[in-house]
Amino acid sequence: MNGITLILFAIFFYAIAYRLYGKFISNKLKINAATETPSHTLYDGVDYVPAKTPVLLGHHFASIAGAGPIVGPVIAAGFGWIPVYIWVLIGAVFIGGVHDYTTIIASIRHQSKSIGFIIEKYIGISGKKLFLLFAWATLILVIAVFTIIVADTFASIPAAGTSSILFMLLAILFGLSIYRFKVPLWIASIIGVVLLFTCIPLGEIFPLHLTRLSWQLILFGYIFIASVTPVWILLQPRDYLNSYFLYALMIGGVAGVFFASPHMNIPAVAAFSLDKVGYLFPALFVTVACGAVSGFHSIVASGTTAKQLNKETDGKLIGYGGMLIEGVLAVLALIAVSALGGAQFTEILINKGPVAAFSIGVANFIEAIPFLPVTAATATNFVALAVAAFALTSLDTATRLGRYTFQEFFEISGSKEQPFFVKNRYAATGITVFFGAALTFSGQTMSIWPVFGSANQLLAALALLAITVWVANLKENYLFVLIPMLFMFGVTLTALGMLFYTNIYSGNYILSFISVLLFLLAILLGIKAYTVLVHNKPKKIKEELITQ
Hints:
The protein is mostly helical. It is built from 22 helices and 2 strands. It has helices at 3-29, 38-41, 53-65, 68-76, 81-108, 115-122, 125-156, 158-179, 185-205, 212-228, 235-260, 280-287, 295-305, 314-338, 342-351, 354-367, 376-410, 420-423, 425-442, 445-473, 479-506, 509-533, and strands at residues 273-274, 278-279.
């Protein structure tokens, strides 16, 4: 099979899905451009700030993408390219896109609060507390893991560290130019993107040589500042500018496919079981998360994105469209590593990791473009730097989301007197960063990583559960969210059961304990939702719709 056929079909399939299924979802949710969103009604200049559609798409896409749609398909390619390709196509359209889009809309209909708030409204306060505690713990794990990944990258590639610091300074200038000096977005974007790509050679000229520990400490200081700083100063403009990195990477990679005309040099179906990964079901659906569906997206969608949505109609492009773009990236990653061939792919994956395999594969495509004067080495460095930039994006976004989640856990609904942690973003951020740092320096982060895939997909199942109950209360047919929710519960509960068995057998009682806790959490919330849906006993609430 030729990679050109696969990438063309994926783009065509996603385009049709965006037009038809995206419209279907919009009708179900009764999207209304006239409905004033919380970014306007609750504007505070820090978290609630309306953003132009391309800016928010850049932030949202950069936040949800990270290294996820690259690492997952690369690892799962061991099963063969057909299972991964089908899952990325079907998953992004009917599960991931639905999950992301509905989460954004449900959030803005509830003051841009998190999924935990929606669970409290429709299922109960105990369900909310359980979900928020689980979400916060998952974000702590994300912070720790991505701190290690980014610090290792900067320590091994000093130029990437310098370029990333320059990106941050550029983002601050971009934010000030847009929001304070009122420079038109198109002018600021042209200048910003030119300067963005100028940071790459500057990083190579002035590499910053620091130790792994030094970078970790710098990163913890950075994510604290990024979490408490108004979104328009750093987070939003940096993610927007960084998204051009990923767009350039995707455009160059996809265009290169047509010139390189790569063949899928790994088996269509290779194995039904992989060492350290597991059986095809459920491992495929847990390993390939971003690119098909990821629970982390629900925290981003109802955390930072919903607070910046300018109008409801922007939700389709940002939520559903952003997921489909990520699906294209996942397909590109699959084609890139499949073109390397089985032996070369395995060698690179074992010795250098999935990011290196992706970087080398896409670099081969970019090098094949005749009018681009780049070498394979230059292209490989560019791709690796782009992936590192998005890992950093996921890191600081996860910290801000951790702060939101922590504050919401202690929030007392309907009360004017709120606990200290709710009112003080510095304290909530400090506690979140502290626990992330403690886990990082404990040395146990990567040993807990195997359960993270299941935890992440369980978040997706729980988010879809909350959305299902919410849509049912709208008196709409909720099968379009119910079926994906049931599938994700089936995947995660099976995966957690197998993890429990595997770790008990190998004597890893910590992972066994975590697996049981997650399993029980899913069952408990599922029972609560069942009571609401099947017995038709929804709470009599008044939705907090904010209308003009």
